[in-house]
Fold these 4 entries.
Entry 1:
Amino acid sequence: MPTVLTRPRRDVDIPPLLDILAMQQAETQYPFHWPPDLGPERFLRRPSEIEAWVAELDGDVVGHVAIQSVTEDELGRMWAAAHGVPITQLRCVSVLYADRRVVRRGIGSALLARATERALSDGGAPVLDVVAGHLDAVSLYLTRGWHEVGRVRPDWLPPTEEPVRAMILPRPGTAAPQPQ
């Protein structure tokens, strides 16, 4: 089985990444609104982005992840309190998705590992949010040591959905948060 490679995202990667995002959206409901309110490219490349990567399999781009800075809002305050750090130290793993045509190949795991490594590299505190009904994603995070620290209902979430799970990855040498 070919190895999944991760590397920094380049401008040339944007068209295939947008195609993958559009193809998987009907099945995964990620993102819930399609096309996203600000457009697919602004969903992918956000002003709060610190760094982004792609996954490649046999030379083809097959997935994406980014690290974002976090704003002073309900979710940011929840994460900061759970980690015991200022909001400016939080690093949000976001826009993580993979091509559904090559599932179970370790793409999500490789991207999550790359983003987590980067989040921790400058003393950052890794955080993310995940739609409660996205069970594959929830399972991935839980099996990689992430902990749920609360739930929130962002504006973009349909009222029929459970609140979004706010999660943190405890930093090395820190205690895991107590279950909510």
Entry 2:
Amino acid sequence: MFLIIALLVVTLGYVASCVVWPFKACRTCKGEGKFRSPFIRAVRLCGVCGSTGLRPRAGLKVWNAYRRLHHKNRRNR
């Protein structure tokens, strides 16, 4: 019983954090959206995050996939 309650609390906590913070910092550019060359002052934009510095969290990806599937199934009726 305790394990079920603990799992429910952790799950609801993760869902709440996904609602408050749906994006995380890009791991490739460390949230800056650009790279600096180590020797020259050249700047290159991050192609992974589209130079925003943000990437969607796993919970947001699951929610978006559910919404796409739900929308697709509602249109086919």
Entry 3:
Amino acid sequence: MSIPTGLTKGTWTLDPSHSEVGFTVRHAGISKVRGNFDNVEAALEVADSLEKSRLSATAKTDSFNSNDANRDAHVKGADFFDAEKYPELKFVGTDVSGSGESYKITGDLTIKDTTKAVTFDTEFNGVAVDPFGATRAGFSGSTVINRKDFGLTWNAALETGGVLVGDKVTINLDVAFVAPSE
């Protein structure tokens, strides 16, 4: 399979100031909490073909941010990410399929000491040259995981029934990569 139009061979790097790696999870059965990771690094290695191209990403767990200091401290702590013991979440792509604007990127997601295969439904948003001469490529994507599959099992029962934190977590990506320098 051919690579998307506009992507040139080489290692494209994530532009963190124009990217967001976030999530949503059900809270108390009635609303959704959103958050993101403020410190993420990623590389998109574009090869001659889609099959040979690779994606890898790392998010620092202590950069978790949901705009609530108490919740952030809890999630960074031993009940969830245990950021001191497990400082990074990792994704290593193993397969890419699709064409045009729609792709599936499958890879190994590691949270704490558990690695599982996940597939991101991904949209290629195109390539553009910014006013400063940098060539950028944009992508959006999402996948749904069960947090318990990754050892994130803490919860609290509610008086009205149900639990405080849902099991299903949607990981959302809206990212920009910068082309390699020539």
Entry 4:
Amino acid sequence: MSTTRHLVNRRRRLATVAAERATTATIAPPRGPQDPAPSRDESARTPDGPDTTTDDEVTDTTADDEAAEQKGEEPKRERTPRLRIRLPLVLGVLTVLLGAYAAWAFASAGDLRDDPARQNTALTDIGRTSEVKGQISEAVGAVFSYDYASPAKSDQAVKSHLTGKAVQQHRDMLAQVRAQGQKQKLVLTTTVTDSGVERLNGDRARLLIYADQSNTRTGKAEETTYAAAMFAVDAVRHGGTWRISAIDTFAR
């Protein structure tokens, strides 16, 4: 049924075009014998202006519209104005979306720059990491070693390698060793076996320390005990030298 209706519509359109051309030919003034024959362009003109519509164009347009109607789509002549209206709307929506994405990306980049983890150069600054590991390992061995025969050496190590609250923390940790040192002739030796830089940010660092300790009593009966230790230290750099600023034994 749909095909029959389309054929009827097509025939009506063709009949309308043919009727318009017949009317134009009827109202055209008669041409005398002396009048030149009209040119091809003039024969195609009508009183209202040039008619450039041909049977082929009418047939093509009608066929396209009928094909669109059979597929359930809008005819081409009705679809084009809607596309012209929708295009600016689509472009406006895309502009808003791109602006929102740009704002989100800028905010995310700022968060990454402010994230402390992004400022940690422990794995990227190899030279500085090696420097702090070497100097702090040496400092730990010096300040956590004690010889009853030369206590001044321990005092000098504290002045050279400790700063801030680490001074008082070290004093509390070795208070018993100093009190019993002369009586029991104590010799405490600490050797760092391994260390790792947990965080490095400019002139501040945090390290995890693994150490072995031997405590020898050289009194009437010499006795040596061994122990392993693990703790963390915070370090700061002054004048090219790293010093321990805090000691964390993980005690709660």
